[in-house]
Amino acid sequence: MTNAPPPPTTAAQSARTILTRLHEVMASRTNAQGKLNQVVGIIGECLNSEVCSIYLLRGGSLELFATRGLKQEAVHVTRLALGEGLVGMIAEQIETLNLDEAAAHPDFSYRPETGEELFHSFAGVPIIRRERAVGVLCVQHSDPRRYEEIEIETLQTVAMVLSELIANADLVDTAARIDAAEADQSAQRLSGQKLVNGMGAGIAVFHQPRITIEHTVADDIEAERHRVYAAFDKMREQIDRMASQAEFGIGGEHEEVLETYKMFAYDEGWSRRINEAIDSGLTAEAAIERVQQRTRMRMRQIDDPLLRDRMHDLEDLSNRLIRIVSGQMGTAAQMGLRQDSILIARNLGPAELLEYDRRRLKGVVLEEGSLTAHVIIVARAMGVPVIGRVRDVRTSIREGDLLLLDAAAGTVQVRPTAAMLDAFEAKLEISQKRRADLAALRDLPAVTRDGVTIELMINAGLREDIAALDLTGARGIGLFRTEFQFLVSATLPQRERQQRLYRDVLDAAGDRPVIFRTVDIGGDKALPYMNVDENALEENPAMGWRALRLALEREGLLKVQARALMEAAAGRTLNVMFPMVSEPWEYEAARNLFVGQRAWLASRGKKLPAAIRYGAMLEVPGLAETLDLLLPHLDFLSIGTNDLTQFLFAADRAHPRLAERYDWLSPTVMRFIARVVKTVDGSKVALGVCGEMGGRPLEAMALLGAGIERLSITPAGVGPVKAMIRSLDLGALRTDMPAMLARPAADPRGQYRAWAESNGVDLGD
């Protein structure tokens, strides 16, 4: 963190003005209700907003506590349940809303007693305490307009101060509800998502004590700034020391992850944002928390898992920084694990996980987390089972509770009964035998019972992912995501750096094929070092200016990657795949660009690939309508089931209400894939599927039945899918498949499972 403070921004000046006045209100002897009444007046006046209202969580619902602009008779009368109306949605999802026409929003709930029909625009932010929403601060205006970013940032800063005020006044019921939950002594079963497979038993240990910020308004801004400078220096020393001491015995992708994590610790953009928050009048702790809250909200809006995981690293560093600056440095790792333990955390960074004694750490339970998170890569290298997305672990689990973690089932048993413990131990014994059986399949071919060979490949994105080829016995890499290098870099990776990565991957793969997908950035995978037109912000980034669309516009980016790939593959076969092709001309334009760069390198005497094979990803359903035009120009085609599914159903796969609604095995998806297989059949184009769908035995079986014979999947899926393949009579399945597609059952998943069970297919259940 540089020692020259930046000049205060307009947002900081605006927030500081409000905080100065709020500080006077908080110091006054007025009662809590009187203070809230003054607060809404100050905010409304400073933001020139006709309405400012504060809703607080009490009695399980959000109660209107104070307002300027709405009818006063609605105060302590109007109530909204969590998730009800715009205010309820903000509190439930801990999200910010900014609308020019509130009534047009599908979650709008009109309350006649408030008189709010006079107002059109609406902006609201959650009031957060102990990582939970305890209220909502909102403003409204009669004219339809979106509030400026400066105004939203000011509201978020004020919400932090309000959190301190309402906590001191004991106005909300969060603490009572938490205490009641913690008093529960009964056995519980919590569910989450499998992140690293395995089973483990141990006592619950919380990674770090909950740090509650008690003072938000700074008395001396320069003193607060210097506290943050010192904390940054100490944090960076810790990260450097841990990264240098991490030992795994052999190289792995975790090493690159740690280097990336270290880079984030030195990121100037992050430290600048904290400085700006201090300029607004916040204490050092509150400034870090303010930036951290904004990061959390951004994480919830990001669809791309790799970019979301970058934000997780910043979240972890924020936790570390706030503990340093507050003087509350103790973590479970520093105190030491005394017995077999299951670690509990909202989230973890890779370096923090490395601090734990691997002999005692039997598992990790996260409130957040995702399959591609950096900490998960490190946990996999350590052999520690992990489940994530387990809600309310802090209110359901107490320090010292006995926990039984079953990552395969995505469950953790809390305070288990004797019967639960017996069942867990029996399943653990079976699981250990299953792992041994799958390991024995590594060197056996993926051949069905009736002699059909299936090409099993893996998806990768880091240099050391290649180690999974030997561990799984996969035939190659069917999808190497080149954008990961761009996402974790502070600057655009130069050609030499890209070339070095691609060459290392090819060297490690040996004679096994590697299919490089050209960079898929843009949309929600925004890069901080690429200029973005702020007037072209996208409401649907997954369907926006990204992937091949962006690359064809920024030819320099694609040209550099083309040269790097060709020089890395000198003397070898290069497989290149273009993402998100919507029409044949886009593929032709990208292919012609590569052809041009090949000629350019040849004219300068560079050594070239022995051959270049070109392919496309079928993710946009519309491309299927012009496949007959595209096939003569393709060497291979890969169906990307992740994006394809959300485009087919017009459903954001990251939306919590839609994530489980649409099934990969629905006739919509399966008929589409079967139609693509029929179109490609008879051509010389190799057809495959890449994505999560192919990594699950039941879904993989259905894909094979539809005619697919090449799968590129997550490395963890290779063993179970190979076991399924070797138990499958593919001819029998393909005989019955047309009838299942023509007359699908109401429960297609159950239909496929019933077929598998009656035909002796090993689904690993």
Please describe what this structure looks like:
The protein is α/β, with parallel strands linked by helices and 765 residues long. It has 3 domains: 11-169, 2-Layer Sandwich (Beta-Lactamase); 190-414, Orthogonal Bundle (Enzyme I, Chain A, domain 2), CATH 1.10.274; 450-530 and 541-759, Alpha-Beta Barrel (TIM Barrel), CATH 3.20.20.60. Helix content is 45%, strand content 16%. It has 28 helices and 22 strands. An 8-stranded mixed β-sheet has the order 7-14-13-9-10-11-12-8. It has an 8-stranded parallel barrel with strand order 15-16-17-18-19-20-21-22, surrounded by 5 helices. The longest helix is centred in the N-terminal third of the chain and has 25 residues, at 221-245. It is globular. It starts with 9 loop residues before the first helix and ends in a 7-residue tail after the last helix.
